[in-house]
Amino acid sequence: MSGQRSDMAPLVDLTAEPGTGPVRTRRPVYVDLLPPCNEACPAGENIQAWLAGVTTGRNREAWETLVSDNPLPAVHGRVCYHPCETACNRIKLDGMPVGIHAVERFLGDLAIRVRWPLPPPPTPSGKRVLIVGAGPSGLSAAYHLARHGHAVEIHEAGPLPGGMLHFGIPAYRLPRDVLLAEIRRIEAMGVKIVLGHKVENVLAEQHAGGFHAVFVAIGAHIGRHVEIPAHDAPRMLDALALLRDVAAGEPPKLGRRVVVYGGGNTAMDAARTARRLGAETVIVYRRDRAHMPAHAFEADEALSEGVKIRWLSTIQMIEGETLTLEEMRLDEAGRPQPTGKVETLGADAVVLAVGQDADSRFLAGVPEVEIRPDGTVEVDAQMMTGRPGLFAGGDLVPSERTVTVAVGHGKRAARHIHAWLRGRTVVRPAKHPVVSFEMLHLPLYSDAVPAEEPALAPAARLSGFAEVVSGLDAGEAGREAARCLSCGNCFECDNCFAACPEQAIEKLGPGKFYRIDLALCTGCAVCVEQCPCHAMEMVPEPMTAEGRAP
After folding, report:
1. CATH of segment(s) 12-32+490-540
2. Could you tell me which CATH number the domain at 128-221+358-421 has?
3. 122-127 long-range Cβ contacts below 8 angstroms, 24+ apart
4. What is the pLDDT of residues 444-495, one digit of tens each?
5. DSSP calls for 51-73
6. Using an 8 Å Cβ cutoff, are 311 and 267 in contact?
7. What class, spelled out in words, does domain 36-116+474-481 have in CATH?
8. Non-local CB neighbours of 494 within 8 Å, separated by 6+ positions
9. DSSP three-state, residue 155
10. Where along the chain do its domains lie?
11. Measured between alpha carbons, how far is residue 506 from residues 214, 284, 497, 498, 513 in Å?
C-alpha cells in the first residue's frame, strides 16, 4: 500500500444505519519496510539502523549493529564500491546520496582506535569447520561461524591473511595496519589462521583435521593472458603480480614508460601503482569510457594522478619497445571492432590486466564438484557443491567479484553451514517491500550539504603509498548520518503524534515508539499523511461475520 488517501476508498463509512454513527473502514498501522540501501547491500547490512545510531551519538551501539553483519567495517568503508549509495533515495531529493561508506569507515576506525572487542562466542558447539583461504569471504565465514560456537580453522597459502585485500588492493586505498587490526579482532574470537599452508587435497585435509564441514573461499589470483604477436618484447607483467610484489615490498623495475592493457579496476590500480613507482603510465583499453568495467571514480582518480588513457585502442603487435595500437570502433551491441587504423607507442614494460581466474585444480580430485572453464565451481542455493558438507563462495563461484560480495558470500555460507551441521536447512522469510522515493512524504526533509572526505592533492600522492582519502570526525559523521531519510523505518519524529486530531496516538518513550488507541482513532489518515518516511500505512478494518467492524 502507498499510505495515501484515496477518493475511491472512503476512510469513514457514512452510509451506516441511522443512529449508529460513522464507522471506520480503515485503520493506521506502523510498518517496518525495507530501505533501498539495505536491499542493495551485498553484505546484507542493516544500514539504516546503524546510521540512526550514529545520528544520535550511539556509536558503540551502531558499530555493534554493523558488525553483526560485517566484521570488516573499516575495510569496507575504504574499498567497497557502495551500491547502497547508488540506490539511496536521497539522490532524488538533493542530488547526493548519504555518504554511507564514509560513516561506515568512521565506525570501523573508531572501533580500532578505542579497541572495541567483538562479542565473545557462545558455548562451543563441538563442531569443527575448515576454511580454505583467508580472504574476505573466508574471514567473513569464519567470523559468523565462530559466533555460532563452531571451532574454525583457516588454511591460507600466503604469508599473511587478507588474500586480495592484502595483495590485490594498494596500500594507498587500504592501509595494512587497518586490515590487520580487523583480522586480529576475528582471531581474538578463537578463529585459528594457519599461514603458508597450501591445501593440495581438500578431502585429505578435512579427514586429517577432523573437520565436519569445509568452506572453500580462494581468490582469483591467476591473471589471464592474451595472445599478442611479439618480437623481442619489453618486459611483460601480470597486474596482480605487480600489485602483489609491491605489497610484499619488492617492487619490480618497470622503466620509464609503462603501458597497462585493460579497463577494469585492477588496471586502474596497476596504473596508479606504476605512477607511484615513477613511471609514465598509459592505459590502453579496447572500448570507450562508457563501457569500461572499472568504476568511473577509479578512472577519475587515475587521470587526476597523471595516468593517460587511450580509449578504443588495442595492442596489435609488440616489436622491441614499440607497440602497434589499432584504433577500434563499437558496433551496435557495444562490441569493439577493428578499423585498420594503427599508430605506435613506446613502452619499457607492458602490464596485462585483462581479468583473473581462480586456481581450483586442487578440487579436481573431488568427483562431485563441477569445475567450470574459468576455474569457478557450481554451488546450489545453500552454497554447497555437489559433495555434502563441502561449500564454496567468493571468487570461486560465478558472481560479481568485489570485496562486499565476497563478505556477503561468507555470511551466507556460514548460515547454511551452521544449519547443515544441525541437520537443518535455512528458511529465510520473505523480504519486506522496498520503499521507493515516491512513497516518502518529503515536506519534513530539507537539503543538507554532504560531508566531504579530505584527500591528498594529486601531486602529493605520487611520492609514496600513503592513504589518499582521510576519514570523517565524529561531528561530520553524525551530520552525514543525519542526512538519511530513514526510508520505511520510524525515527520518532513525532509528526504522527502531533498531527492526530483525536489524540489517539500515545508516545511510549525513546526507542519504544508509539501506540495507537483504536478506541479514539477515526481512521482519518492524517497521521499516515504526515509520516515522512512511510513508516505508517492504512489497512482495511477487520470485519465481523455480520460485515461490521468489531
Report:
1. 3.30.70.20
2. 3.50.50.60
3. 122/147, 122/148, 122/149, 123/149, 124/149, 124/150, 124/151, 125/149, 125/150, 125/151, 125/421, 127/151, 127/212, 127/213, 127/421
4. 677 788 999 999 999 999 999 999 999 999 999 999 999 999 999 999 999 9
5. HHHHHTT-HHHHHHHHHTT-S-H
6. no
7. mainly alpha
8. 507
9. strand
10. 12-32+490-540, 36-116+474-481, 128-221+358-421, 226-354
11. 52, 64, 7, 10, 9
CATH of domain 226-354: 3.50.50.60
Please tell me whether residue 156 adopts helix, strand or coil conformation.
coil
CA distance 461 to 276: 8
Using the structure block, give the residue that is written with the C-alpha cell 596508479. Answer: 272
Half-sphere exposure (Cβ direction) of 427: Cα atoms closer than 13 Å: 1
Same fold, 128-221+358-421 and 226-354: yes
Residue 107: closest CA among 177, 53, 165: 53
Q: Are 132 and 139 in contact (CB under 8 A)?
A: no
pTM for the whole thing?
A: 0.91
